[in-house]
């Protein structure tokens, strides 16, 4: 199986651990449900082919030095609890085109390494967080996305 979308089904409870065993999975969407889920690095261990991940209302519990095996192009983690720090594991995601971390409980500044992975970004949504400080590089990137990314 390469794609699994479970969005908008009114699911409750937790996700089965076997989803993390789907080693051929390229797209995973688990959003708009009533799940009470905490995902850890072990559940992503075999998902090395994952390119698109769409989650919401999920808690992510990974170590600060976790390096996922997948290389995402699309990452939507709106209303997921991934903060308070900006997720360090994003450093390994150099193929990102779409990144949405809206309402993700982030209350830190955007780290300098972020600008090394953001060159391919066409969409960046970081709304409804408590991002600290204003960085001129953020302003320039947002200006680039606005001018060049949406023509």
Note down, in words, how this protein is organized.
With 151 residues, the chain is α/β, with parallel strands linked by helices. It has a six-stranded parallel beta sheet with strand order 1-3-6-8-9-10, with no helix packed on it. Strands 2-4 form a two-stranded parallel ribbon. Strands 5-7 form a two-stranded parallel sheet. It has helices at residues 114-117, 136-148; strands at 3-5, 12-13, 27-30, 34-35, 37-40, 52-56, 58-61, 74-78, 98-100, 123-125. The protein is globular and about 40 Å long. The longest helix has 13 residues, at 136-148.
Helix tally equals 2
Q: What share of the residues lie within helices?
A: 10-25%
Order of helices and strands: EEEEEEEEEHEH
What Rg, in angstroms, do the CA atoms define?
15 Å
Binned strand content: 15-25%
Strand order of the largest sheet: 1-3-6-8-9-10
Average residue-wise pLDDT? 86
Quaternary: single chain
Topology:
Elements lengths: L2 E3 L6 E2 L13 E4 L3 E2 L1 E4 L11 E5 L1 E4 L12 E5 L19 E3 L13 H4 L5 E3 L10 H13 L3
Labels describing this entry:
151 residues, alpha/beta, six-stranded parallel β-sheet, two-stranded parallel sheet, 2 helices, 10 strands, 23% strand
